[in-house]
Amino acid sequence: MFNIAKAFRSISIAWSGIITLIKEENNAKIHLASTILVIVVGMNLGFMAIEWLWISLAIAGVWMAELINSALENITNMVAPEHHPLAKKAKDFAAGAVLVMAIWAAFVFCLISFPHLWMRLVFSN
Ligand SMILES: Nc1ncnc2c1ncn2[C@@H]1O[C@H](COP(=O)(O)OP(=O)(O)OP(=O)(O)O)[C@@H](O)[C@H]1O
Q: Which of 58, 59, 60, 78 could link 105 by a cystine bridge, Cβ 3.0 to 4.6 Å?
């Protein structure tokens, strides 16, 4: 039978994972600042629904990549606390995944915001 209390507990645990990430990981603080900045800029420039769809996908993608990267980092640290070439590979691959998502997110943001900025410039004169 569906247990609503268990479902809420799972959500609460997942949320606390995100909070721990923000508290402990420097990159997550950068993602948080970028997320807030993008939302503020998007609201200011008046992004349309379809544009918010892409922006939100990009933001969620970066957060997902960072969460998975940090999970893999922790598992790697547990399995191989000493220096190991495979541990290095695992961490570097996971970090690469975050970089790929961050570059794509920056591309999406530029692609969406530049035409808005351009229109602002043209019609402000
Ligand atoms: N056990 C290890 N064996 C070999 N190389 C490692 C090991 N641990 C870390 N490294 C190398 O050092 C780099 C930095 O590792 P670290 O654990 O500090 O993560 P990080 O990249 O600083 O992540 P974050 O800043 O998100 O905490 C890794 O990307 C990897 O190249």
A: 58
